[in-house]
Amino acid sequence: MPIFDFACQDCGKKFDLMISNRDKDKVTCPECGSSKVRQLLSLFNTTSSGGSKTVQPSCSAGCPTAASGG
Ligand SMILES: [Zn+2]
User: Fold this and answer.
1) CA of 26 to the centre of ligand 1 (A)
2) For residue 63, is it within any domain?
3) What is the pLDDT of residue 13?
4) Predicted confidence (pLDDT) per residue in 44-68, tens digit
5) What CATH number has the domain bearing residue 31?
6) In 1-70, which ranges are E strands?
């Protein structure tokens, strides 16, 4: 199951739960028990200092999905 990040709008508690997509409606704050929680967007590896982009060595040559003119 995926992990979702939530933030309570009553006490400001941030927490993450590993629930299914359908159970996101009945999430309650583990701190105060409020149901006014807001789902946060998941971020993928955005903690990079500096401004240089990291090039991933993924299929630089011989990639099966390499688009070639037909
Ligand atoms: Zn709360």
Assistant:
1) 14
2) no
3) 97
4) 544 445 555 555 556 555 666 656 6
5) 2.20.28
6) 3-8, 14-18, 37-40
